[in-house]
Structure formats: structure tokens, C-alpha cells
Write a structure and sequence with these properties.
alpha+beta, globular
């Protein structure tokens, strides 16, 4: 139930203040989960559905993230053939 309220808060922020505000929230969550400086985080994709997820880049690394308490980000693995 707690995650529902977190998602509802994110959607509410998006509706009332626009995408830049939600991106700021996602950048801060990415910073907290990865240790990457906020100024270096770029949000490249987002899904604000029931399970808020996004893809973030920091330098040459890509992270797949999910919103929660706490938010989590996992570094994308490079697959070589």
C-alpha cells in the first residue's frame, strides 16, 4: 500500500508541475541509489505506471531504476557476443 502512495505522489507531481519536476525527483533518486552526482545524471526513459521505473545514464554507465523506499538502480550489463 505504501508504494501506491509513493506512485500517486509522483503522478500528482507530474500532473501539477510538469515533466521537469518529475525528472528532478528521478535524478535525486538515481543519485541516492548510485552515488552518481546529480549534475551527471540524465533520465533517458521513464514509465510512471503503477511500478515507476526509469533508465538513467551517468557518464558511460546506464542504470535501470525503480522508485520505492529506498529507490533502487542496477547497472546495465554489457552483453558481448
Amino acid at each position: 500500500m505504501k508504494s501506491f502512495f509513493v506512485v500517486a505522489s509522483l503522478v500528482s507531481a507530474l500532473v501539477t508541475t510538469g515533466c521537469s519536476s518529475i525528472d528532478t525527483t528521478l535524478v535525486k533518486a538515481t543519485q541516492g541509489a548510485t552515488g552518481c552526482p546529480a549534475a551527471s545524471v540524465i533520465i533517458v526513459d521513464r514509465d510512471l505506471g503503477m511500478n515507476t521505473t526509469w533508465t538513467a545514464k551517468c557518464g558511460d554507465k546506464t542504470y535501470f531504476c525503480s522508485f520505492g523506499e529506498p529507490s533502487q538502480c542496477k547497472e546495465a550489463q554489457v552483453v558481448s557476443k
